Amino acid sequence: MSLNDPLKIGLLFSATGNTAPIEQSQLRGALQAIDEINSKGGAGGRQLLPVHYDPACDARLFGVLAERLYTEDGVNVIFGGYTSTSRKAILPVVEKHNRLLFYPQQYEGFEFSEHIIYGGASPNQNCLQLAEYMTETFGARVYMVGSRYIYPYECNRNMQELILQNPTGAIVGERYLDLAAARDEFALVIDDIRRKQPDFIFSTVIGATCAFLYQAYAEAGLDPGRMPIGSLNTSETEIFLMGAGLAQGHVTSAPYFQSVDTPHNAIALDGFWGRYGNTLSTDMNWEAAYYQVHLFALAFDAVGLDDFDPLISELRGLEYDAPQGRVRIDARNQHTALNPKIGRADANGQFEILRGSRHMVPPDPYMVNQEQGDWVTKLSSTER
User: What percent of the chain is predicted at pLDDT more than 90?
Assistant: First the structure.
């Protein structure tokens, strides 16, 4: 292969299925970054050539298509996966072939593979901040609602441990619904919430059913000013799909919102709107895919190879000025140091940023040293 030949990279983001709208946001971030890199001469002088497949939100297909990318398409590096189930389906394939996966999604933590670069928030970069904000502002009695799979189970366990650090902390209810649950099932959950009157609701409901929870909440006449939904995954994209009015007043903890006021976000948004128009929003999923592709290009520029050993050595400790602020791949655990924030949804489907970190928060995916009030993860307030 000539050094001038295009450099193939694999993209596994679903175009169909329950979480497809979110995975399409990830795809937009990856493709935008590829365009930006190629317009400046490529990575190491080579144009990036995306090879994209639609796994249709099927965990088995994520593994099958990863195998195809590595063995048939000549790809060494894949960007993809949204659910933890999809990541775990790709993991044995990347390890078997000694290749690399960039996973651009926040997740429940408690995992490490040297063959994965974890780009989204670890639990000490979103769950911890949400627990602190919600208990300080509303109280420590929480009702947990999630989708029925790994990520919600483990996130709720993380949240429970944090809530119970509070002397008044209590889990007053915990319900899980199928990823294909019907809308009326959420009305039954909201009925139970209204009876038990928690201080806030912690939602790990994902995909198309996310809207059903917020719809049932609004139809029940509940007040987000008194008992809001707090989430780690409800982003601008979910709000666009459900309608801005349904999410107004509810809270999300994430390292990125479209409303982030940084020079690098302004530049990235200009590129986004130029490519996709101004009807779509960016979100935390778009941003993670966007900066992970840029980090890969920086590493490839330095080593000139996409083989696993030289590439992973260069990636460890690498930094990039992402839209959220500066980020860094942790050299020990290959998760990413990020800039946590608390946002409250407004009437336009965007987020007012209520609190933000003073500096990059190092990832602690195993929550070894974390507790509420820790100086490392404490957020400064921008509330008025």
Answer: 94
Burial-class residue 249 by CB neighbours within 10 Å (0-12, 13-18, 19+).
middle
On whether residue 372 sits in a domain, the answer given is no
Q: Are residues 182 and 225 in the same domain?
A: yes
Domain membership flag for residue 368: no
Together in a domain, 305 and 194: no
C-alpha closest to that of 247 among 229, 226, 220, 222: 229
The DSSP letter of residue 97 is H
Number of domains in the chain: 2
Average pLDDT along the chain: 95
Helix 263-276, helix 284-303: angle, nearest 10: 100
pTM: 0.95
Give the mean pLDDT of 91-98.
98
The DSSP 8-state label assigned to residue 186 in this structure reads H
User: In CATH, what number is assigned to the domain containing residue 301?
Assistant: 3.40.50.2300
Question: Which two three-digit tokens encode residue 237?
Answer: 């994209």
DSSP E strands in 107-232: the ranges are 116-118, 141-147, 170-177, 200-204, 229-231
What is the mean pLDDT of the segment spanning 258-284? 97
**Enclosing domain of residue 73:** 7-120+261-337
Q: How far apart are CA 384 and CA 381, in angstroms?
A: 9
271 and 175 co-located in one domain: no
Instruction: Tell whether 345 and 330 lie within a shared domain.
Output: no
Query: pLDDT at residue 266 above 90?
Result: yes
Q: Are residues 155 and 244 in the same domain?
A: yes
- DSSP H helices in 9-83: 20-39, 59-71
* Same domain flag for 296 and 333: yes
341-345 and 251-254 strand pairing: antiparallel
- For residues 174-199, give the mean pLDDT: 97
C-alpha closest to that of 143 among 186, 192, 184, 106? 192
> Could you tell me the pLDDT band of residue 380, with boundaries at 50, 70 and 90?
low
Compare 33 and 376 and report the one with higher pLDDT. Answer: 33
For residue 292, give the H/E element and its range.
Answer: helix 284-303
* pLDDT (mean) for 289-310: 98
Match 């590829």 to its residue by tokens.
34
